[in-house]
Amino acid sequence: MSSKDRILGRIRRALDDAVPAAEIPRDYLPVHGARTPAERVDLLAAHLAEYRALVHRTQEEALPALLARLLEARGARSVLVPPGLPPHWLPAGGPTRVPDRAASTPYELDRVDSVVTGCALAVAETGTIVLDGGPGQGRRRITLIPDHHICVVRVPDQVVDSVPQVLPLLDPARPLTWISGPSATSDIELDRVEGVHGPRTLDVVLVGTQ
């Protein structure tokens, strides 16, 4: 028996004897205020901008042209594309497409200029985008290693008000990634450094249907 087996065995025995957990009161507000769908999207956009994400609004039919402009402005020569991304989002003739492969190393992903994904949901009150590894989002690491991430959010359908509202809509067994702006941190003197554990540039495209 290994040390790991002994430790896990002790944990199992301790849990068997544990007192049932007391029910935790959840009397906090699930949402702060009432909003129309349009107000919810406006709040999401405002908080994304506060986090230094670059926010763009467009309609479904104009999305391919906008994505092409964002990639061109970035000077992207390669773009990582999840397998379930709608093909018409990135028409032919743009940057070289890189597939989302399990065998890709971090060094290979670091050489990719941009990545385009969809999302699972977005939270207006916190300016947070949630990815769950769905077909249009790909593996978690493809949004953590390349330096430029373009994330498409369908509005208002994929926008909820608050974290308490979004949690029941997510599958906890999926690899959830919560993104609030570009990757950044601050040292003890509050000097902001971007690109620490993810992309330095986050473009969020809010796509409406009308």
What does it look like?
Residues 109-207 form the LUD domain. It comes from Streptomyces nojiriensis. InterPro entries: FTHF_cligase-like_sf, LUD_dom, NagB/RpiA_transferase-like. With 210 residues, this protein is of the alpha/beta class. It has one domain (35-208): Rossmann fold. 23% of the residues lie in helices and 24% in strands. The chain has 5 helices and 12 strands. The protein has helices spanning 3-16, 37-50, 63-74, 106-110, 163-166, and strands at residues 54-59, 78-81, 96-99, 114-117, 121-123, 128-131, 148-154, 159-160, 177-179, 184-186, 192-194, 201-208. It has a 6-stranded parallel beta sheet with strand order 1-12-7-4-2-3, with helices on both faces. It has a 4-stranded mixed beta sheet with strand order 8-5-6-9. The longest helix has 14 residues, at 3-16.
